[in-house]
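WARN retry 2 of 3 for item q-0093 after timeout on previous attempt; input resubmitted unchanged.
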Amino acid sequence: MTIIRPLLAAVSANRSFTPSNSTRFLACQPNVAGKWLNEKDVYNYFTNNAFVTSSSSDRLPVINPATQQLSGNIAENTADEFDEVVLKAVHAYEDWKLVPVQQRQRVMLEYQRLIRDRTADLAGLITAENGKTLADAKGDVFRGLEVVESACQVAPQMLGDSLAGVSSTVDTVSFREPLGVCTGVCPFNFPAMIPLWMFPLAVASGNSFILKPSEKTPSASLLLAELAAEAGLPENVLQIVHGGKDTVDRICSHKDIQAISFVGGNFAGEYIFQQGTAHGKRVQSNMGAKNHAVVLPDADRGATVRALVGAAFGAAGQRCMALSTLILVGEAQDWLSDIVEEAAKLSVGAGWEDGVDVGPLITHDAKNRVLDIIHRSIDQGAEIPLDGRDVHVNEYSTGNFLGPTVLSKITPSNIGYQEEIFGPVLACLEAKSLEEAMQIVNSNPYGNGCAIFTASGAAARKFTREIQAGQVGINVPIPVPLPMFSFTGNKASIRGDLNFYGKSGVQFYTQLKTVTSNWPYRSADLGGMTMPTMGKE
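OK item q-0093 returned
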């Protein structure tokens, strides 16, 4: 008995579905399916503001990570279907770019209202396909919603510059224009937030957009597309396609696609950046991370321990900004036992169960990879004061569960430090001084984010100025900027020079045009064979 079906029934009936317990959640059987899951349990794609069944026979299963039940199958769009989607996006862009920006903002204003009203539905779909807790799934939606809210006031970010009288009758003005057809390739770990980092700003700026959600967690994106149409987004300004590498290759190479946004792992991110730029596309690629927390002994011990545990093990560690690495400085090394004790209190289970803190990993392969890293880390000298490998969740014995795990006595050469583990594992290092801790952080190739916990303003300032990560928290465990700023990871965590959302996000989805005009009141020389100097030599 599947979980996704009762959720889809609630969504298609436009009512919230909030289970009181897992029995009701599993037992409720719908009379109708969701609009994007057809009678053969195949996920439809989204075009012409409607859900359409692909003619493809290629299937990718969508599996509930807590139960291993099949929610349905993704049908990878055929090459012809993809080309048709792009052609529709080109035509939609030609009309949409002419719509005044204030009218595009009004669509976003209605869109944010609809998302807010349907947060419970979106969260339920995320939990059913991704596994994270319902509370965390609502946070997933909310952080994306904040970007939609910023898209409601995109006009100031599109303002250009002007200068009158650069010569006696010559004026120059620059302004931002949309690029055309933009695309997004999304990861499994934030099924609502990451798509909402992408297409709302893109379409508010005047582009059309083609989104490829993760083949593991497609439903939230499909509901978001439906709500965008309900908000008044014209046909084919937003479309959704499905698939794996073949679809990604089509995105990277299609001549009519102008830009690609990607969030995910390093292997895919490097590939998309290389292929996309080789085909002349603008690419922003947010990739891997190894986020460090540096703890000084003058920090608030209890509050810091709780913050570290939440940031390390929330969402089962499957966050690109998870605090997966801890450096305890000096006397703070004695805090390890407190961290272990606090982490051991966390409840592991299905994300829809009351009281659960840590849900499953996304797939069996993901779990096995984390287990292998733990095993090899111990072989290389790490100790394991908290071992979550044997966790058992009674009602969900087949789920991809791994309990909170703490590895200590880690060195920078240990695989537990070298790899982005992407699971509920905290790697703990020791340093004698702040300088030594900063050296460890700065030697790491990744630069997504980091945090320092201290009561010293001087130490915090030194850390902020000298650390090389792009996003820094001072007594803030996960310093993801709000959308009036931009997501500013650096080093090996990003490819491309324009960041997601905020001012950089708008700049990514637009380009500058500069117009120089000459309007002499009387007949004048408009130029000749030599380099124009406008009479200023």
